[in-house]
Write a structure and sequence with these properties.
2 domains, 10 helices, Rossmann fold, Glucose Oxidase, domain 1, six-stranded mixed beta sheet
């Protein structure tokens, strides 16, 4: 695994908009840029970062601006302005040779997952998942934002599950995200000799998995993941090499982490089944799911029943409702790093090692 050099105070962060621009959120984006400047970084924005367009510009232009950030000698790391829906359109325009020849950290989350799959699984370059350039707009900063800023600079602390999360989201009246939900990671351990052909109905999840509240789990493996909505779309294109990644690092084991934006239970089952049929969970040490951002009418039970039908085939520990993804606070995770995951009694910690 190739780890780029971390930026340091005085270096320049290049911000580009490979999907959406930030034209509708200029005020909050400027607060985040202020945080980055206060941390000692200079900022270089590509032309379409502040675009109101959705996407920010045509795919070829977005690709050219992405390449520009990697090719400029004065830029030390590349950060996505925002998420969106259109990163996959610009993947053919990425100059992979420029990325290899000008090693830099790429930072993004949500739609930019597709870029991270290209860089990490195909080019073997580690990437940072969990924040975009507009992530540091809270006042005061939350601990998870401080951790993300620390990781961006190369100081990688052990991350611990939080006590509360924002279940209701942004409160317009208070101007803040309300931490009104209790954080509780749930570990499900496969029962001995449990296989999906034991499942005769949707009520049989407990026949293959058991909720292991008191179980202590300690696993290590190569970290890979991101927004499952996006991973599902990019699999099978020329811009991912997940099978090769899993084969290269089979001896390390794999820890998968998934951020589900809005896939419903059946869609998530199909996405994970497609990955399972490709053998991507054969060496999995754990599979971690964050809280679903838009579950609509679906319950946790609905999701777990569908996932049990797939993951029981691999007898892999399943963690649900982790601090990963679009609900905040969330972990910042280095795709490609070795992760050391510990779990006990609804709480967890993640240590990352760059080797």
């Amino acid at each position: 695994m190739i780890y780029p050099k971390f930026p340091k105070p005085g270096d320049t962060l290049g911000i580009c908009a490979p999907s959406a621009g930030v034209g509708e959120k200029i005020e909050s984006f400027d607060l985040s840029v202020e945080t980055l400047r206060n941390a000692g970084y200079d900022i270089a924005e590509t032309k379409n970062v502040r675009s109101c367009g959705y996407p920010s510009s045509p795919a070829g232009i977005r690709g050219a601006e992405f390449n520009e950030c990697f090719e400029r000698d004065d830029i030390s790391a590349v950060v996505c302005a925002s998420g969106g829906d259109f990163c996959i359109e610009m993947l053919p325009y990425i100059n992979q040779k420029s990325v290899r020849d000008n090693l830099k950290w790429f930072v993004g989350y949500s739609d930019p997952t597709s870029i991270e799959m290209l860089l990490t699984t195909k080019l073997d370059i580690a990437t940072i998942y969990g924040v975009n350039a507009g992530a540091w707009d809270w006042r005061p900063l939350h601990e998870y934002q401080k951790v993300a800023l620390s990781i961006l600079g190369g100081d990688i602390p052990v991350q611990h599950s939080y006590e509360r999360y924002s279940a209701s989201g942004y409160n317009e009246e208070t101007g803040a995200y309300e931490m009104d939900g209790e954080v509780k990671w749930e570990l499900f351990m496969p029962r001995p000799s449990s296989y999906s052909d034991n499942l005769s109905s949707s009520d049989d999840f407990k026949s293959v998995y058991t909720l292991a509240c008191d179980y202590e789990l300690n696993v290590s493996g190569r970290l890979i993941g991101g927004c499952i909505d996006v991973i599902n779309e990019v699999i099978g294109t020329p811009f991912e090499a997940l099978e090769g990644f899993c084969a290269r690092y089979a001896d390390d084991g794999i820890i998968w982490f998934f951020d589900n934006y809005e896939l419903n239970p059946m869609q998530l089952q199909y996405a994970i089944r497609k990955m399972q049929l490709k053998g991507l969970f054969n060496n999995a040490r754990a599979v971690i799911f964050g809280r679903t951002f838009i579950p609509r009418e679906a319950t946790d039970r609905d999701y777990l029943e569908k996932l049990g039908r797939v993951l029981a085939d691999n007898s892999v520990p399943l963690i649900w409702n982790a601090d990963i993804g679009h609900t905040k606070p969330s972990f910042t995770i280095i795709n490609g790093a070795i992760g050391h995951l510990s779990y006990r009694n609804g709480a967890a910690s993640l240590k990352m090692e760059l080797r």
